[in-house]
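Re: [ENG-882] Designed sequences occasionally contain unexpected residues at chain ends

Forwarding the minimal case from QA. Structure tokens:
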């Protein structure tokens, strides 16, 4: 072999090794250890404090913990949903504890959730703002860019972005729109901020993870924004509510690994925080961008942080794991 050919071969191999090294570096994932990064609990929002008047966070925590402890069927359902989506059941338990400690009190019996779910099927529920239905809104030209997106999560996330950029708090399509999230304006017809069922899910969240649910469980129905009662029944009925909770948590773990480069599967406080806050993809991208700046400045990357909600889950992790 000629010297020039050998040099070309060596150069090509060198480029391949560099490319492989760069790819491996780009794919490197940092495990987030268990426990809290904050020594003390971050501030609890006023809304949570207001919802707890006449009680206490500790009493609400004990109420949901006791429901989990005494209801073997509920724990079995949690474990089954976790296996379906390949996650540790502690993530579902943590989200349940966070929601029912800082959002609404847990009901005393699991059966109460089944009864409530059936009640929604008989109601004429439509997702709209004043005289504009959600289907009429997303049919407007501004949302056309979202139609080419693949999957329910990507489509509805795109629609949220369009709403925030071109409608929220602005005049568009002949009227003034509220300065609030798409999910609160169009998907909570009873009152703003309301979530539902055991998992305290909202309808938009269910629509977003519907494809992920159906990938694992093809027999689950395809949700449609035109069929409000069916969506409400899905998020209210305990079995399907737990399935959708697991899907939301699975998506959070996958997004943080793929986008931000962190494996959060060992930290239920972080996954609970993301379950509480939502907008997981945007948060993962923001963390990635922030850490890129920190690296450029010679600083260590910042690990995902727990909020007040996730802090409690990590603080109580040993107690919660004993429930399994």
């Amino acid at each position: 072999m000629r010297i020039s050919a050998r040099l070309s071969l060596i150069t090509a191999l060198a480029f391949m090794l560099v490319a492989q090294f760069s790819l491996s570096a780009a794919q490197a994932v940092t495990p987030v250890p268990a426990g809290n990064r904050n020594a003390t609990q971050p501030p609890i929002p006023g809304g949570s404090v207001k919802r707890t008047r006449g009680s206490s966070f500790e009493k609400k925590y004990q109420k949901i913990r006791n429901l989990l402890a005494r209801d073997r069927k509920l724990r079995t359902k949690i474990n089954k949903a976790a296996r379906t989506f390949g996650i540790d059941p502690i993530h579902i338990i943590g989200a349940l504890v966070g929601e029912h400690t800082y959002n609404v009190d847990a009901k005393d019996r699991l059966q109460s959730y089944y009864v409530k779910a059936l009640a929604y099927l008989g109601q004429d529920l439509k997702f709209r703002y004043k005289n504009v239905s959600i289907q009429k809104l997303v049919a407007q030209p501004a949302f056309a860019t979202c139609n080419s997106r693949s999957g329910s999560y990507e489509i509805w996330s795109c629609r949220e972005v369009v709403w925030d950029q071109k409608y929220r708090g602005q005049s568009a399509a002949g009227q003034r729109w509220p300065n609030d999230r798409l999910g609160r304006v169009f998907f909570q017809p009873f009152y703003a901020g309301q979530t539902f069922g055991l998992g305290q899910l909202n309808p938009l969240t269910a629509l977003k993870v519907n494809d992920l649910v159906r990938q694992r469980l093809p027999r689950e129905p395809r949700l449609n924004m035109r069929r409000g009662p069916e969506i409400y029944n899905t998020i209210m009925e305990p079995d399907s509510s737990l399935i959708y909770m697991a899907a939301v948590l699975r998506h959070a773990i996958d997004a943080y690994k793929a986008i931000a480069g962190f494996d959060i599967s060992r930290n239920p406080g972080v996954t609970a925080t993301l379950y509480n806050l939502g907008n997981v993809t945007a948060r993962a991208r923001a963390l990635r961008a922030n850490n890129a700046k920190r690296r450029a400045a010679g600083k260590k990357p910042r690990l995902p942080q727990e909020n007040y909600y996730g802090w409690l889950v990590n603080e109580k992790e040993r107690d919660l794991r004993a429930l399994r």
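QA comment: On inspection the terminal residues look reasonable. The CA atoms of residues 121 and 229 lie 5 Å apart. Proposing we downgrade this to a documentation issue.
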